[in-house]
Amino acid sequence: MQSQTRPVACVVPVLLVLVMCMFLHPMISFAQQEESIADLTRLDLAVPDNPANNILGLRNTEILRPSSLREVSVLLGDLFSLNSTIPKSISFEVAPLLMLSEPSLNEFKDLHWAYSTRISIATSEGKDGGRQIALGIRMSLLDQSDLRVNQELIDEYRVFGKVMSDFGTQCLEENTEWALLDDEDRDQRIKQCAKEKLTSATRVPADKSIAAIREKAKQDAWNEAILEIGAALAAQSQDSLAANLMSSSYSAWLTWAQPFLGEKGQLLLGMKGRADRNGYGGDWFSEASIALRGYFGTNSFKGFLEGDFLARDDRSPAVSAAAGIEVNLSNGIWIDASAGLEKVASRSAAITHDVSLRIATPELVK
């Protein structure tokens, strides 16, 4: 029996190493892709939840938090547990098609559903010392916060790209000897020459003009409309090495986000359906929930209030409320924290709390 379960126990660490390698790949390649308009439109909006993490029941929320599409993101949950000095849960999410290809803006727009499809994996320590593992998938049916489909910004970048292309042609005509250089050296000289011509022509550094366009778009886009669907399945083991895994949960989400109170707010409506086992190998029960969350603030710092209602077929309904903050610590690094109360029937209200660190492929800063 042990020889059959050891491969299963090895799956998680192997996958974590592979995903971390994939996480590093986009950052290594930024310098090579800095002229790509698709990369220029990547902004540091909030790092979202993922289905694999949420199905494990580690977040005190019924909402699958949507946000900007990232190639790779990592979520470390339960950071300040009283019983552990390290996070008890970790999850990764990758957008395979977006990460492994370099689509044009037209390709991205035409196949947005495919490029926005993300796969997630999560693992956590169970209450009995066992191991929980989950797999998830989600897709954006609508995402107006994604600047790769923001026509106004795309037009700005295309104009900038055309100007730079024209300057590059002039540079090559003025320095015909560059044609004898290798491709990489020639391209670097043309880019540098074109930037110098742009700076001289506009008296505004090219880097600053790009940064200004992106920063304004970021502030305008953080609370735009999003519609996402997601699903996940989970398995649990009574062994810390994940031996004898058994299916434990199935879940599906729908989340709708809309601007609220102008540029300062966003309103989220979430719905979830779920089937769970009652303990390891126990009978199945079902539940359904609806939740409402309101954000107020800016992209880099915002507070939120949330209310949830959860109905299960094996116990009384539960209602909960929470307040929290979401803070951008650095490019691609976010932290959120919340505290609240949960009430089930006549029982005393229970205090809930949550602190999570989120890391994702950063925006391109030229």
Reconstruct the topology from this structure:
Layout: H1 2-28, H2 37-40, H3 51-55, E1 72-77, E2 89-94, H4 96-99, H5 105-110, H6 112-115, E3 118-125, E4 131-143, H7 151-174, H8 183-202, H9 206-221, E5 226-237, E6 246-260, E7 265-277, E8 284-297, E9 301-312, E10 315-330, E11 333-344, E12 350-360
Antiparallel strand pairs: 1-2, 1-12, 2-3, 3-4, 4-5, 5-6, 6-7, 7-8, 8-9, 9-10, 10-11, 11-12
Provide a concise account of the structure shown.
The chain is built from 9 helices and 12 strands. It folds into 2 domains: 2-144 and 225-360, Porin (Beta Barrel), CATH 2.40.160; 151-217, no CATH class.
Sketch the major β-sheet: 12 strands, antiparallel, barrel
CA radius of gyration is 23 Å
* Percent range of helical residues: 25-40%
Which structural class fits the helix and strand makeup? alpha+beta
| Highest CATH level, the class of the largest domain | Mainly Beta
CATH topology name of the largest domain, in short, is Porin
Q: Give the CATH architecture of the largest domain.
A: Beta Barrel
β-strand amount: 35-45%
Q: Give the number of DSSP strands.
A: 12
Structure description:
With 366 residues, the chain is α+β, with helices and mostly antiparallel strands. The protein has 2 domains: 2-144 and 225-360, Porin (Beta Barrel); 151-217, no CATH class. It is built from 9 helices and 12 strands. The chain has helices at 2-28, 37-40, 51-55, 96-99, 105-110, 112-115, 151-174, 183-202, 206-221, and strands spanning 72-77, 89-94, 118-125, 131-143, 226-237, 246-260, 265-277, 284-297, 301-312, 315-330, 333-344, 350-360. A 12-stranded antiparallel β-barrel has the order 1-2-3-4-5-6-7-8-9-10-11-12. α7 packs across α8. The longest helix has 27 residues, at 2-28. Mean pLDDT is 79; it is low at 1-35.
